[in-house]
Amino acid sequence: MSDIVIYTIITVSAIGVVAAIILYLAAQKFKVYEDPRIDKVEEALPLANCGGCGYPGCRNFAEECVKADNLDLLFCPVGGNELMKTVAAILEKDAVEKAPQVAVIRCSGSFEHRPKINNYDGASNCTINAQLYSGDTGCEYGCLGLGECVDACTFDAMYMDEQTGLPVVIEDKCTSCGDCVRACPKDIIELRNKGKKDRRIFVSCINADKGGVAKKNCAVACIGCTKCEKECKYDAIVIENFLAYIDFNKCVLCRKCAPVCPTNAILEINFPPKKERVPKVEDKGVLAEKQADENTNLIELAKKNNDPEAKG
To answer: Is the dihedral of CA 64, 68, 73, 76 positive or negative?
Structure first.
């Protein structure tokens, strides 16, 4: 073997060794320590990467859980309270239990209640529709009916009702991730507390027009009449911009506001039918006494009118 080949092998080997040493020292100098608990937390998460927690993905959420001093402001809506208890156990922290939520559609403007005044002939996308014009009905606040919220839901918890033209939330599947809320350009979808026994009361309208205009464009629009606000004894209802809103944190589900709404804009979800009031059965003696008094009054009245039958 020639000397040139030998020198070449030695030189290349030396360069490789020196380069390896340099890379090793650089890696040790600039290496980033990653807490092994991040992987454990991430494995416990649903890995839906829906963004409902407020972070881009489950990995980012896991990192924040590890870094945070407590979990008070961190919550995974998909996994709920049980998942957060698991995360808290991994990190040896306390988890704050939060009320479960569900998405609600704050628009009841179906084909029946909100007739079309023109036909939209364009891309089947709510965002594009909203950017072009206010919609194909007189109400510029209502649902556009093109199902962008349904497309955004990664849990198959929504569908479009062909009879009404409105989206419907499947409560058992809804994880309150908020994807549909962010997808709706009209902001008609809201996350609200599920409530006791999954019962909720809310104003299904976001129309901020004055009462007459709102009622003209939609038969079930809130007209800001303040009747529900006056009826509520718990300060749970406020009127702003001719529109009522029920604060689910204050509402006690007494159901007194819905009957006084003249347009039926307030929805009661998952409540049993109200029982009709049955008049109390009075005591037979009291009834007999009342009947006797009525007969006496009739006789006296007949006498005054000189009725022969009354004299008998």
So the answer is: positive
What secondary structure does DSSP assign to 239-255, as a single string? EETTEEEE-TTT-----
* Closest listed residue to residue 166, CA positions, set 231, 236, 94, 111: 111
Task: For residues 167-190, give the mean pLDDT.
Answer: 95
pLDDT of 1 > 70? The answer is: no
Rounded mean pLDDT of 49-53?
Answer: 88
pLDDT at 269 over 70: yes
pTM score, two decimals? Answer: 0.74
Q: How far is CA 190 from the centre of its chain?
A: 4
Q: Among residues 77, 84, 93, 74, which one has the least CA distance to residue 44? A: 84
The length of the chain in residues reads 312
d(C-alpha 233, C-alpha 116), whole Å? 38
Say whether 215 sits in a helix, a strand or coil: helix
Selection from 147, 117, 153 nearest residue 135 by Cα: 117
Residues forming beta bridges with residue 167, ordered by sequence position: 160
Q: Return the number of other C-beta atoms located less than 10 Å from residue 135's C-beta.
A: 23
Burial 138-167 (b: 16+ CB within 10 A, else e): bbebbbbbbbbbbbbbebebbebeeebbbb
Cα 46 to Cα 60: distance, rounded to the nearest angstrom: 13
